[in-house]
Amino acid sequence: KNVPKYCNECSCHLLLSMWSVWCVFVPSACGSMCFVMIMMMLQAELPNRAFAGRGLCHIFPSCVSDFNECVTNTHTCLSNERCVNTVGAFVCERQISCSSGYQLRNGVCEDIDECVLRSHNCAPGLQCQNTLGSFHCSPKQQRCLTGFTQDPHGNCIDVDECSVLSEPCTLGFNCINTVGSYTCQRKIMTCSRGYHSSPDGARCVDVDECVMGTHRCGEGQVCHNTPGSFRCDCQTGYQYDSSRRTCVDVNECWRFPGRLCAQSCENTPGSYQCSCTTGFSLAFDGKNCEDLNECDSNPCSQECANIYGSYQCYCRLGYYLKEDGHTCEDIDECSQSIGNLCAFQCVNVPGSYQCACPPEGYSMSPNGRTCRDIDECATGVHNCSATQTCYNIQGSFRCLSFTCPENYRKVSDTRCERTSCPSFQNCQNMPLRITYYQLSFQTNIVIPAQIFRIGPSPVYSGDNIIISIPRGNEEGYFSTRRLNSFTGAVYLQRQIHGPRDFFIDVEMKLLRQGTFTTFLARIYVFITAHSM
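Above: the chain's sequence. Below: its structure in token form.
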């Protein structure tokens, strides 16, 4: 009943006995026999029967071999299970069906590597490559010589370059495949007399007997190639003399009078030569005569103009040609001028003249004749004080200052507005607004000239104005005129000689809705010298 610790649990085939069963056990399992205790009376119930049971290993030297329950069909596996015999027992495994190329291992279908197991059928020269469930054969990678390629079986075979290449040979050649290469052979072509095969062998081309020297032209004759043949002609300037059977010179000047040369014709052997008269030179074409440019030798002191067959001397502007026809002399434009060349002063220079301006107040215009006023106010060269305003006039400038009288305030640089007045009567007589203006005119202004306009703004229906010049017109140079009921104008009515300054007051009385309102325009009028 004592079981050694080194024995393992095992399965035994039970032979019927009273209390215990002795089983055969293979030595490879635990090196002993199997001993099983049966806790029931088996003989009475199941006489002469065998059972499978569980037991423990026990040393018993009389058992010598395993009993195969799977062979004797004494196992208890189900119909969908497979009996696997083990030492002293058996195991029931569930049957699993694997596809082709797979094998069952530990209950799992695993791929069979036919390449490793060498169960493939690849031919020599092919290599096996395993795939899931199968394998395939591919050519072994090997380097073929030039002109060969590898076929599907891994063999090096010849490449047919004549079929593979689009243009293996040039035009006129046939491609012939060889082992590892190919050759090009010229196509055979038969041509007629006077023709030969083209370099590419594709067509027949004319033989140029003149170039190849196979013609039969005589001395002095010229060979001309023709399709399939040639022709012998005389050189240019010669003609064939059938009686003498030779080429003789042609006198072109006699045969074509006046047609070959523009002026003179001289016959030469086989040709002719043209010449020209004095004043002309032979053109590049050897036929026409071109005018000889005598001016190339500088026969004139200044300008030379070539004319047909001769030349003519000319002088530049500001010079005249002397009697010798070659020398030029300066013209004094300032002394000979009929009109006014310059606005201020004319200065003669060799071949021309220059205009000058006054030393102050003017600069020369871009046209070089007139003088342009210098705006001293804009250029900052005036001497006006900080309290004065610089006003530019023709050739000079003026420094002006504006102050507002009592009861007026300055609202801008040129305007004063009334702030208060002692009485209503004074309000009607005192200007509501005093405005300063500056006008500049030249002495050559056309008389009469409207120089100033005045009127209310805005204008309302019924407005009426009265204008006058209460101060500054003592000599009567200015006058006023009413253009309409609400617009007046100031005119310069007398010609003023020489520069002069005026300061006039122009008063406008506006009658609006029965009330007079006075406005005063204080005008600086500068009469300057006319523009230069």
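The CA atoms of residues 37 and 503 lie 158 Å apart.
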